[in-house]
Design a protein that fits this description.
GO terms for molecular function: endonuclease activity. Pfam families: Uma2 (PF05685). Residues 27-176 form the Putative restriction endonuclease domain. With 192 residues, this protein is of the alpha+beta class. The chain contains two helices and twelve strands; from the N terminus they run ββαβββββαβββββ. The protein has helices at 47-63, 121-134; strands at residues 33-35, 38-40, 68-72, 75-77, 88-92, 103-105, 109-115, 139-146, 149-158, 163-170, 173-176, 182-185. The strands form four sheets. A six-stranded mixed β-sheet has the order 3-5-7-8-9-10. The longest helix has 17 residues, at 47-63.
Length: 192
């Protein structure tokens, strides 16, 4: 494939793309993220990824206080050239502005969760946590596939250092009291 057969938007401008650009690029593939001013295209999701995300979405939604909302695969603007799309996020109810909304602002996000895929390992384990912490998002969950079982690494933001501290590694059950009481049987992904 020659560069002349590619759409113009594949080539970033000299200053990189901005978070606002994502809403104006024609025919952009679904779930395209913006990391460090560059477009990141995601691979199709595997069954494990889909099942874990569905389980967390339904169980977190069930436990969520009335002033918060659970959202799946919505992008979050962290700054000018950072607009990742976490698998799951927990937002303030007031962040919901209108039905055509395509993103949330980091200041409205309480929690982001990323289910690690083979193609996104480095982004999900290293770059995205750095970006989420730098933007001040208080909680981050990283979910890994260990032999078909979900393992949740839960982190809380240290506001002094703007970095995440590991608060727990959850193998069979995700039981937390922060950001609210939560008890999820992680083995339930086998029943989804």
């Amino acid at each position: 494939m020659s560069s002349s057969s590619l759409p113009d938007w594949v080539f970033p401008p000299p200053e990189g793309f901005s978070a606002q650009d994502l809403d104006h690029i024609p025919d952009l593939p679904a779930h395209t993220e913006l990391i460090d001013g560059s477009l990141v295209f995601v691979s199709p999701q595997a069954s494990f990824h889909m099942r874990v995300t569905s389980l967390l979405e339904s169980e977190v939604r069930r436990a969520t206080p009335v002033d918060l909302r659970v959202r799946r695969e919505m992008s979050v603007i962290l700054d000018r050239d950072q607009r990742p799309e976490p698998d799951l996020c927990l937002i303030s109810a007031t962040a919901e502005e209108h039905a055509e909304q395509t993103f949330y602002h980091a200041s409205d996000v309480l929690l982001v969760a990323e289910v690690v895929s083979p193609e996104s390992r480095t982004r999900d384990r290293q770059r995205k946590p750095q970006l989420y912490a730098s933007a001040g998002i208080p909680h981050f969950w990283r979910i890994e596939n260990q032999s078909g079982k979900a393992v949740v690494y839960a982190y809380e933001l240290d506001p002094a250092t703007k970095s995440y501290a590991l608060t727990g590694i959850h193998h069979d059950r995700l039981k937390l009291t922060i950001p609210f009481d939560l008890d999820i049987d992680l083995d339930a992904i086998d029943r989804i």
